[in-house]
């Protein structure tokens, strides 16, 4: 399996996120990916390729141009407000979204206003290295997709920050560029007529869903904690089935948080894989969040490390050219074992 590593990921290192009225340490840390890298190396999965710069043309297939320009200049704009800002991360404090009556069709010149326009939570710190780290992660996903799309076998995008919460023109949920969506567009470029996304992160992949919501050539399927109580709250319900030509090409499988362990989760996976088979996908992108693990500090499912071997094997059963991205997973020490189990299960290296 090809592994493309974003060796610039350390440049993105959020200090704090807003939580219940105060700043708490960010859980989306560089050591998450270091644990993944160490475990893959320990199992002999070496020979990684390093990510390269993505082409702007492909980024624009998924993301809004003004949003990309905003990300590219956000740090310098932030420091230009006040040189003292360089000592802390960018976090928004005003949002136009929701029932406020505030306009969403304007992009004000004011930096704080633009920040709020392009961000949907106060938990996604942006700093000097964010753009470079996110950009190279996108490059990693695109390189993986070219490999898979050219029939050379499966691939894993070893990167952070994650991507599945990032929409066409918004960041949030620790995500800036939607790596899974960029992989989909690249697979389509390589000739795949129909691509499926299977999102197994604990949190609903709202960004990926929204990017492809009116498309019939991309099926998006997500298994996640019920958004009535779980992040991202405003997306991920079962009645979100697509729009226009995309009607019927989005499937959400919310599960009750708390008690959900492998047996119940696996039923949802089987439904997801059946939908992907019916769709007739030519390629599969697995948005691989490991925050379904029982030890995850911010999520409430109860999967065990061994379960990821079975999940990988079940995904392999779809028999499709497959690409894995890395999304969430915040139990830092086990994330490497859990991700490596997923890949080993997929390649039947479990024994
Ligand atoms: N204090 C991904 O898994 N809210 N994003 C957490 C904890 C945000 C998760 C609150 C969760 C975002 C990629
Ligand atoms: Zn998650």
Key traits:
351 residues; alpha/beta; 10 strands; binds zinc ion
Describe this structure in words.
The chain has helices spanning 30-42, 56-62, 65-81, 111-118, 130-149, 179-189, 206-211, 262-279, 307-316, 332-346; strands at residues 2-5, 16-19, 22-25, 49-50, 155-158, 195-199, 218-225, 250-255, 283-288, 322-326. It is α/β, with parallel strands linked by helices and 351 residues long. The strands form two sheets. Strands 4-1-5-10-9-6-7-8 form an eight-stranded parallel beta sheet, sandwiched between helices. Strands 2-3 form a two-stranded antiparallel ribbon. Strand 6, helix 7 and strand 7 form a beta-alpha-beta unit. Helix 2 (56-62) crosses helix 6. The longest helix is centred in the middle third of the chain and has 20 residues, at 130-149. Bound molecules: N-{4-[(3-aminopropyl)amino]butyl}acetamide and zinc ion.
């Amino acid at each position: 399996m090809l592994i493309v590593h974003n060796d610039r990921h350390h440049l993105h290192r959020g200090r704090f996120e807003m939580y219940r009225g105060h700043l708490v340490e960010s859980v989306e840390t560089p050591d998450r990916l270091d644990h993944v890298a160490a475990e893959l190396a320990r199992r002999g999965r070496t020979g990684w390729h390093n990510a390269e710069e993505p082409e702007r043309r492909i980024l624009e297939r998924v993301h809004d141009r003004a949003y990309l320009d905003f990300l590219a200049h956000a740090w310098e704009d932030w420091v230009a407000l006040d040189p003292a800002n360089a000592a802390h991360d960018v976090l928004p404090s005003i949002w136009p979204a929701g029932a406020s009556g505030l306009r969403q069709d304007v992009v004000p010149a004011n930096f704080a206003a633009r920040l709020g326009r392009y961000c949907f939570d106060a938990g996604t710190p942006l700093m000097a290295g964010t753009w470079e780290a996110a950009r190279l992660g996108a490059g990693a996903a695109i390189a993986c997709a070219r490999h898979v799309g050219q029939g050379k076998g499966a691939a894993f995008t070893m990167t952070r920050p994650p991507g599945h919460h990032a929409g066409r023109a918004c960041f949030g949920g620790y995500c800036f560029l939607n790596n899974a969506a960029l992989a989909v567009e690249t697979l389509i470029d390589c000739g795949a007529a129909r691509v499926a996304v299977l999102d197994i992160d604990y949190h609903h992949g709202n960004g990926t869903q929204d990017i492809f919501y009116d498309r019939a050539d991309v099926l998006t399927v997500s298994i996640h904690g019920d958004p009535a109580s779980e992040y991202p709250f405003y997306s991920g319900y079962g009645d979100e089935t697509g729009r226009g030509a995309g009607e019927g090409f989005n499937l959400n499988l919310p599960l009750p948080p708390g008690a959900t362990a492998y047996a119940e989760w696996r039923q949802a996976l089987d439904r997801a894989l059946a939908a992907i088979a019916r769709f007739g996908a030519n390629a599969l992108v697995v948005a691989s969040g490991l925050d379904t693990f029982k030890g995850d500090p911010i999520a409430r499912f109860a999967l065990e490390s061994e379960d990821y071997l079975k999940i990988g094997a079940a995904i392999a059963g779809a028999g499709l050219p497959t690409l894995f991205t890395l999304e969430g997973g915040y139990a830092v020490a086990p994330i490497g074992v859990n991700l490596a189990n997923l890949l080993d299960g997929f390649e039947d290296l479990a024994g």
